[in-house]
Amino acid sequence: MLTGLRCSNRQTRSAIGRLSVQTSANTAAIDRLTERVDNIAVQQQASTELLDHLVDRVDRMVSAIGSHQEALRLVFQQHNEWREQMRIIQTEIRDIWQYLNNQLRNRGNGGGQN
After folding, report:
1. What is the pTM assigned to this prediction?
2. Distance (Å, rounded) from C-alpha 83 to C-alpha 38?
3. What span, in angstroms and rounded, lies between the C-alpha atoms of 67 and 103?
4. Of the residues 34, 66, 97, 114, which has the fewest C-beta atoms closer than 10 A?
């Protein structure tokens, strides 16, 4: 029976040794995984900051586009007002030209002298 105990003790010590080695390997693997998770968390934070910066930049661009659209609308409105003013001026010039031509024609036809 003593021989059986010795064998069992040896097997137990061997199993404990293997478990100790496996525990050390598991601890090392957990440490590596923890480091990888920490690195991923740092990268995630950096990505979030970059994304926040990008969102802010896009917001400013959208605002600038809105401002430019408003400026273009005002320019277009001013352009239409100028076109209307030019149409009125052209009509007035045409009317004055016709009046002067009529005055010259009347003088040429023996019209009255003023």
Report:
1. 0.50
2. 67
3. 54
4. 114
